[in-house]
Amino acid sequence: MALTSLSKVLCSSLLLTPLLSVVLPLSAAVVNPCEFAVQASHTRSTGSDGRDGRDGQPGRAGRAGRDQVIRASDVPASVDLQGGDGGDGADGERASRPRCDRYHNKPEHDLEAADGGDGGNGGAGGAGGAGGNLTVYYESLTQLRSIYVNAAGGEGGRGGRGAAGTRGCYCDEHHWSVVTCTDGNCTTENYSCTDGEDGDYGYNGAEGEAGALGRVRVIKQSEPLAADNPEFNQAIASFAGTPVALSRNLWEAQTGAATGIFAIGSIVDDTYERYSGRVEQQFQLVWAAARSQQSLPPSSTLAVRINPQGTLEINPTEDLWIDAATTTEGALTTYRVNGAVLASEATQLSLGRHSGQGDQLNLNILDLAGTSDLIETRFFIRYKTNEDDRRPRYVTRYEAELPSNLIEQDFNRFSLAVGQLPISAQYLARGTEARVELVISRSYAGNTAEQTLDWTGRL
Hints:
This protein has three helices and 24 strands. By secondary structure, it is mostly beta strands. Strands 2, 5, 9, 11, 12, 15 and 16 form a seven-stranded mixed β-sheet that branches. A four-stranded mixed β-sheet has the order 1-4-8-7, with no helix packed on it. Strands 17-18-22-21 form a four-stranded antiparallel β-sheet, with no helix packed on it. It starts with a helix and ends with a strand.
């Protein structure tokens, strides 16, 4: 409750109930609450804040230099591949001034004068355009040295300037008091006026980055390069039995484009690429798995490509586990699939019934996907029993990987001889409330997945 309101309540109580005694802390000064009170009053704004200035527009990006393909000769030549300059950012807009009401008639509440507006930020300068790339067919290095190349990137635009903020309003009178008397009882209430805050100066816009230098490829031959087809990605279900042709032009990184192979003063990225040959391959898929190739979902794809080093890469999608062998004879690579399992099928195990007590306790696990003839399965077991009848409090009695001699597999059904583990007989006795936690590892063709199963019940 505000101090003034509390004072009024106390004054009314004292006038109406003379027998009321007010108990104050010993450290407090004893005063008549009807004579004086300091009010923590509600603050109101006066005037209108200034409007913030708008930010400046960013500068446009410079155009990229155009790429060119030329044939070198013994005649000197000049090639202009320069990128365009970026545009300058616009300046921020100046804030508008606030509307000030400096004079007041000493109201019974605090005042806060209007704030000034913030200046707008300057727009960022536009990035310079990248220099164009050049491809040169040549017969001798002397022909390259007769070519002047300007593949400079454009200059970045300047950032716009931030605008000034405007001054906040100030109070003509910062403190005043109001005395209020009722039936001879008076209170004094103090009030204040706070000057408005000045608006902030807008930030200058960032300078635009210079465009990158253009790069060069050189090819020591006169005939044009054949187009390459280095990769393809296709759903395995739609693979035909006919080979697919792949090709890739190979390039070797070199340095000296700006300092050696072209005319003095050329402006170009110093690293360039030299044509080093071409790889042509054929790829065929042979499906020898028991599972039907056409039964695979469209998401199960095979990506094949010739990498920049000229080697063939074969990558099935992660949703399919493939056991395959790759052989190459001449320009033909054969990918023979001997087995395939969907990754989602590896974790479709389910708890079955348990049977027996004591050393005859068995827990059954079922493979709902029916792939356990291919997948290797390992079980990590944690056996616990409850020690509290009122609320569950399970204590671990055994945890380790289940030995293989305690796992009996019948195609897609596993029987785990839990009762044969080195667990005290009292924790396997009839009526024991037990919990079995299984972490099951499933592996096939270099792929692994885990599934967790929990069983809780009374033996």
